[in-house]
Specification:
It contains 14 helices and two strands. It is mainly alpha-helical and 297 residues long. The chain has a domain of 130 residues: Serine Threonine Protein Phosphatase 5, Tetratricopeptide repeat, CATH 1.25.40. Helix 2 runs antiparallel to helix 3 and helix 4 packs antiparallel against helix 5. The chain is globular and about 45 Å long. The chain starts with a helix and ends in a 6-residue tail after the last helix. The relative contact order is 0.08.
Length: 297
Protein backbone atom coordinates (compact mmCIF):
# COMPACT_ATOMS: atom_id res chain seq x y z
CA UNK A 1 0.00 0.00 0.00
CA UNK A 2 2.82 2.37 0.90
CA UNK A 3 4.54 1.57 -2.38
CA UNK A 4 1.34 2.27 -4.34
CA UNK A 5 0.87 5.63 -2.58
CA UNK A 6 4.48 6.52 -3.30
CA UNK A 7 4.05 5.64 -6.96
CA UNK A 8 0.84 7.70 -7.18
CA UNK A 9 2.54 10.67 -5.53
CA UNK A 10 5.41 10.51 -8.01
CA UNK A 11 2.97 10.36 -10.92
CA UNK A 12 1.02 13.37 -9.65
CA UNK A 13 4.24 15.31 -9.08
CA UNK A 14 5.37 14.55 -12.62
CA UNK A 15 2.05 15.77 -14.02
CA UNK A 16 2.24 18.99 -12.03
CA UNK A 17 5.80 19.62 -13.14
CA UNK A 18 4.90 18.94 -16.75
CA UNK A 19 1.93 21.29 -16.52
CA UNK A 20 4.11 23.97 -14.96
CA UNK A 21 6.73 23.60 -17.66
CA UNK A 22 4.06 23.85 -20.35
CA UNK A 23 2.67 27.01 -18.74
CA UNK A 24 6.12 28.55 -18.64
CA UNK A 25 6.77 27.83 -22.31
CA UNK A 26 3.39 29.02 -23.58
CA UNK A 27 4.09 32.32 -25.34
CA UNK A 28 2.20 35.36 -24.14
CA UNK A 29 1.04 38.47 -25.97
CA UNK A 30 4.47 40.19 -26.24
CA UNK A 31 6.11 37.09 -27.70
CA UNK A 32 3.26 36.40 -30.12
CA UNK A 33 3.12 40.02 -31.26
CA UNK A 34 6.87 39.96 -31.80
CA UNK A 35 6.61 36.78 -33.89
CA UNK A 36 3.83 38.31 -35.97
CA UNK A 37 5.80 41.52 -36.49
CA UNK A 38 8.80 39.50 -37.61
CA UNK A 39 6.70 37.60 -40.13
CA UNK A 40 5.15 40.86 -41.36
CA UNK A 41 8.55 42.44 -41.90
CA UNK A 42 9.56 39.42 -43.98
CA UNK A 43 6.57 40.02 -46.22
CA UNK A 44 4.93 36.71 -45.37
CA UNK A 45 1.35 37.99 -45.55
CA UNK A 46 -0.30 34.57 -45.45
CA UNK A 47 1.11 33.69 -42.03
CA UNK A 48 1.47 37.05 -40.27
CA UNK A 49 -2.32 37.48 -40.14
CA UNK A 50 -2.71 34.19 -38.29
CA UNK A 51 0.03 35.17 -35.85
CA UNK A 52 -1.44 38.61 -35.17
CA UNK A 53 -4.81 36.95 -34.54
CA UNK A 54 -3.16 34.59 -32.05
CA UNK A 55 -1.56 37.57 -30.31
CA UNK A 56 -4.97 39.23 -30.05
CA UNK A 57 -6.43 36.14 -28.38
CA UNK A 58 -3.56 36.10 -25.87
CA UNK A 59 -3.90 39.80 -25.02
CA UNK A 60 -5.06 40.66 -21.53
CA UNK A 61 -5.92 44.27 -22.40
CA UNK A 62 -8.33 45.52 -25.05
CA UNK A 63 -5.79 48.02 -26.42
CA UNK A 64 -3.30 45.20 -26.95
CA UNK A 65 -5.86 43.04 -28.71
CA UNK A 66 -6.99 45.95 -30.88
CA UNK A 67 -3.40 46.68 -31.90
CA UNK A 68 -2.84 43.04 -32.91
CA UNK A 69 -6.11 42.88 -34.84
CA UNK A 70 -5.14 45.94 -36.87
CA UNK A 71 -1.90 44.13 -37.65
CA UNK A 72 -3.91 41.13 -38.84
CA UNK A 73 -5.97 43.43 -41.06
CA UNK A 74 -2.81 44.83 -42.64
CA UNK A 75 -1.62 41.32 -43.44
CA UNK A 76 -4.97 40.39 -44.96
CA UNK A 77 -4.98 43.56 -47.05
CA UNK A 78 -1.46 42.85 -48.32
CA UNK A 79 -2.56 39.32 -49.18
CA UNK A 80 -5.45 40.75 -51.21
CA UNK A 81 -8.25 39.58 -48.89
CA UNK A 82 -10.14 42.80 -48.13
CA UNK A 83 -13.13 41.00 -46.60
CA UNK A 84 -10.89 39.39 -43.98
CA UNK A 85 -9.13 42.72 -43.43
CA UNK A 86 -12.38 44.49 -42.61
CA UNK A 87 -13.50 41.67 -40.34
CA UNK A 88 -10.28 42.19 -38.38
CA UNK A 89 -10.81 45.96 -38.33
CA UNK A 90 -14.37 45.52 -37.05
CA UNK A 91 -13.03 43.36 -34.22
CA UNK A 92 -10.35 45.96 -33.48
CA UNK A 93 -13.01 48.65 -33.26
CA UNK A 94 -15.04 46.45 -30.92
CA UNK A 95 -11.99 46.14 -28.65
CA UNK A 96 -11.63 49.92 -28.43
CA UNK A 97 -9.06 50.80 -31.09
CA UNK A 98 -8.48 54.58 -30.89
CA UNK A 99 -5.37 55.42 -32.90
CA UNK A 100 -7.03 58.17 -34.93
CA UNK A 101 -3.70 59.60 -36.10
CA UNK A 102 -2.66 56.34 -37.72
CA UNK A 103 -6.06 55.89 -39.32
CA UNK A 104 -5.91 59.43 -40.72
CA UNK A 105 -2.40 59.25 -42.13
CA UNK A 106 -1.77 55.64 -43.12
CA UNK A 107 -1.31 55.03 -46.83
CA UNK A 108 -3.38 51.87 -46.54
CA UNK A 109 -4.79 50.07 -49.56
CA UNK A 110 -8.12 49.77 -47.73
CA UNK A 111 -8.75 53.52 -47.63
CA UNK A 112 -10.50 53.51 -51.02
CA UNK A 113 -12.97 50.85 -49.92
CA UNK A 114 -16.41 52.24 -48.83
CA UNK A 115 -16.14 50.18 -45.63
CA UNK A 116 -13.14 52.23 -44.51
CA UNK A 117 -15.03 55.39 -43.58
CA UNK A 118 -17.39 53.77 -41.01
CA UNK A 119 -14.38 52.15 -39.36
CA UNK A 120 -12.39 55.42 -39.37
CA UNK A 121 -15.37 57.33 -37.96
CA UNK A 122 -15.63 54.87 -35.06
CA UNK A 123 -11.95 55.28 -34.26
CA UNK A 124 -12.12 59.07 -34.39
CA UNK A 125 -15.21 59.16 -32.17
CA UNK A 126 -13.56 56.91 -29.60
CA UNK A 127 -10.38 58.98 -29.63
CA UNK A 128 -12.35 62.22 -29.17
CA UNK A 129 -14.25 60.73 -26.25
CA UNK A 130 -10.98 59.84 -24.50
CA UNK A 131 -9.63 63.39 -24.71
CA UNK A 132 -10.26 66.11 -22.14
CA UNK A 133 -10.57 68.77 -24.81
CA UNK A 134 -10.08 69.46 -28.52
CA UNK A 135 -6.68 69.07 -30.13
CA UNK A 136 -4.82 72.09 -31.44
CA UNK A 137 -5.88 72.12 -35.12
CA UNK A 138 -2.66 73.68 -36.40
CA UNK A 139 -0.45 71.14 -34.65
CA UNK A 140 -2.66 68.39 -36.02
CA UNK A 141 -2.38 69.81 -39.53
CA UNK A 142 1.41 70.08 -39.29
CA UNK A 143 1.59 66.49 -38.06
CA UNK A 144 -0.55 65.24 -40.95
CA UNK A 145 1.60 67.13 -43.46
CA UNK A 146 4.71 65.60 -41.92
CA UNK A 147 3.26 62.11 -42.28
CA UNK A 148 1.95 62.72 -45.79
CA UNK A 149 5.46 63.70 -46.91
CA UNK A 150 6.64 60.30 -45.71
CA UNK A 151 3.75 58.22 -47.04
CA UNK A 152 5.48 57.17 -50.28
CA UNK A 153 8.36 54.71 -50.38
CA UNK A 154 11.13 56.43 -48.40
CA UNK A 155 13.55 55.78 -51.24
CA UNK A 156 11.36 57.84 -53.58
CA UNK A 157 11.01 60.93 -51.36
CA UNK A 158 12.65 64.09 -52.70
CA UNK A 159 14.40 65.11 -49.50
CA UNK A 160 15.62 68.40 -51.00
CA UNK A 161 11.95 69.44 -51.11
CA UNK A 162 10.68 67.67 -47.98
CA UNK A 163 13.64 68.89 -45.93
CA UNK A 164 12.63 72.50 -46.52
CA UNK A 165 9.07 71.76 -45.47
CA UNK A 166 10.35 69.93 -42.39
CA UNK A 167 12.29 73.02 -41.34
CA UNK A 168 9.26 75.29 -41.81
CA UNK A 169 7.11 72.91 -39.75
CA UNK A 170 9.78 72.66 -37.05
CA UNK A 171 9.95 76.44 -36.63
CA UNK A 172 6.19 76.79 -36.45
CA UNK A 173 5.82 73.98 -33.92
CA UNK A 174 8.39 75.60 -31.63
CA UNK A 175 6.46 78.87 -31.86
CA UNK A 176 3.16 77.20 -31.01
CA UNK A 177 4.62 75.38 -28.00
CA UNK A 178 6.34 78.55 -26.75
CA UNK A 179 2.98 80.34 -26.93
CA UNK A 180 1.31 77.64 -24.80
CA UNK A 181 -0.58 76.12 -27.71
CA UNK A 182 -0.26 72.51 -26.50
CA UNK A 183 -2.91 71.39 -24.00
CA UNK A 184 -3.77 67.80 -24.83
CA UNK A 185 -1.69 64.63 -25.11
CA UNK A 186 -2.45 64.70 -28.84
CA UNK A 187 -0.93 68.17 -29.14
CA UNK A 188 2.34 67.06 -27.59
CA UNK A 189 2.54 63.92 -29.73
CA UNK A 190 1.79 65.87 -32.92
CA UNK A 191 4.48 68.40 -32.06
CA UNK A 192 6.94 65.66 -31.08
CA UNK A 193 6.61 63.83 -34.39
CA UNK A 194 7.47 66.97 -36.32
CA UNK A 195 10.55 67.60 -34.14
CA UNK A 196 11.51 63.92 -34.37
CA UNK A 197 12.17 64.69 -38.03
CA UNK A 198 14.39 67.65 -37.20
CA UNK A 199 18.16 67.76 -37.54
CA UNK A 200 19.70 68.81 -34.23
CA UNK A 201 19.92 66.89 -30.93
CA UNK A 202 17.81 69.55 -29.21
CA UNK A 203 14.98 68.77 -31.65
CA UNK A 204 14.96 65.15 -30.53
CA UNK A 205 15.24 66.18 -26.88
CA UNK A 206 12.14 68.36 -27.29
CA UNK A 207 10.33 65.44 -28.91
CA UNK A 208 11.22 63.15 -26.01
CA UNK A 209 10.13 65.64 -23.35
CA UNK A 210 6.84 66.37 -25.12
CA UNK A 211 6.03 62.68 -25.42
CA UNK A 212 6.71 62.20 -21.73
CA UNK A 213 4.24 65.03 -21.11
CA UNK A 214 1.72 63.27 -23.35
CA UNK A 215 2.09 60.03 -21.36
CA UNK A 216 1.60 62.02 -18.15
CA UNK A 217 -1.64 63.51 -19.50
CA UNK A 218 -2.94 60.31 -21.08
CA UNK A 219 -1.02 57.11 -20.21
CA UNK A 220 -2.87 55.18 -22.91
CA UNK A 221 -2.40 57.65 -25.75
CA UNK A 222 -1.50 55.61 -28.88
CA UNK A 223 2.13 55.82 -29.88
CA UNK A 224 3.24 58.25 -27.17
CA UNK A 225 5.39 55.78 -25.27
CA UNK A 226 7.13 54.40 -28.34
CA UNK A 227 7.80 57.89 -29.72
CA UNK A 228 9.26 58.98 -26.37
CA UNK A 229 11.70 56.08 -26.54
CA UNK A 230 12.52 56.65 -30.21
CA UNK A 231 13.17 60.36 -29.64
CA UNK A 232 15.47 59.58 -26.72
CA UNK A 233 17.36 57.05 -28.85
CA UNK A 234 17.69 59.51 -31.74
CA UNK A 235 18.94 62.19 -29.35
CA UNK A 236 21.63 59.89 -27.98
CA UNK A 237 22.62 58.61 -31.41
CA UNK A 238 23.14 62.15 -32.68
CA UNK A 239 25.42 62.80 -29.73
CA UNK A 240 27.43 59.72 -30.70
CA UNK A 241 26.27 57.82 -27.60
CA UNK A 242 24.69 54.34 -27.35
CA UNK A 243 20.91 54.34 -27.67
CA UNK A 244 18.78 52.85 -24.89
CA UNK A 245 15.94 50.99 -26.57
CA UNK A 246 17.11 49.96 -30.04
CA UNK A 247 14.76 52.00 -32.22
CA UNK A 248 17.37 53.71 -34.37
CA UNK A 249 19.13 52.44 -37.47
CA UNK A 250 21.83 54.06 -39.53
CA UNK A 251 23.70 53.57 -42.75
CA UNK A 252 26.78 55.17 -44.23
CA UNK A 253 26.74 56.51 -47.82
CA UNK A 254 26.19 53.60 -50.23
CA UNK A 255 26.42 51.15 -47.33
CA UNK A 256 23.91 48.78 -45.73
CA UNK A 257 21.69 49.59 -42.79
CA UNK A 258 22.87 48.66 -39.31
CA UNK A 259 21.50 48.99 -35.78
CA UNK A 260 23.09 51.87 -33.90
CA UNK A 261 24.96 50.70 -30.81
CA UNK A 262 22.70 49.92 -27.84
CA UNK A 263 23.34 50.32 -24.11
CA UNK A 264 23.60 46.70 -22.85
CA UNK A 265 22.27 47.67 -19.41
CA UNK A 266 18.75 48.29 -20.76
CA UNK A 267 16.55 45.21 -20.55
CA UNK A 268 13.69 44.00 -22.72
CA UNK A 269 11.44 44.47 -19.67
CA UNK A 270 12.27 48.19 -19.73
CA UNK A 271 11.66 48.31 -23.48
CA UNK A 272 8.23 46.75 -22.97
CA UNK A 273 7.26 49.62 -20.67
CA UNK A 274 7.70 51.94 -23.63
CA UNK A 275 5.99 49.70 -26.22
CA UNK A 276 9.35 48.90 -27.83
CA UNK A 277 9.93 45.35 -29.13
CA UNK A 278 12.70 43.15 -27.72
CA UNK A 279 16.24 43.93 -28.85
CA UNK A 280 16.29 40.75 -30.91
CA UNK A 281 13.51 42.25 -33.05
CA UNK A 282 15.60 45.36 -33.71
CA UNK A 283 18.51 43.20 -34.81
CA UNK A 284 16.26 41.19 -37.11
CA UNK A 285 14.95 44.40 -38.65
CA UNK A 286 18.38 45.13 -40.08
CA UNK A 287 17.84 42.31 -42.57
CA UNK A 288 14.33 43.58 -43.29
CA UNK A 289 15.67 47.09 -43.89
CA UNK A 290 18.32 45.89 -46.28
CA UNK A 291 15.79 43.59 -47.92
CA UNK A 292 13.37 46.44 -48.55
CA UNK A 293 10.47 45.06 -46.48
CA UNK A 294 10.82 47.51 -43.57
CA UNK A 295 11.37 51.26 -43.47
CA UNK A 296 12.98 53.28 -40.66
CA UNK A 297 10.77 55.75 -38.81
Amino acid sequence: MIQKRHTLLLALTALLLAGGAAAQTTPGFPELLDQASNTYEKGDWAHCGEQFAAAAKAASLDRQAARALVGAARCAARAGDKDAAFRDLDQAAARGYRDADRVATDADSLRQDPRWKPFADQVKARDSAARKGPANPELERLYKEDQADRAPDMGKVDWSVVGKRDEERRKRVLEIIAQGGAKEAADYVHAAMVLQHGQAPEDFDHANQWCLKAVELDPGYPGARWLAAAAKDRYLMNLGKPQLYGTQFKRDPNGPWYLWQVDPAVTDEERAKWDVPPLARAKARVDALNGGTFQPH
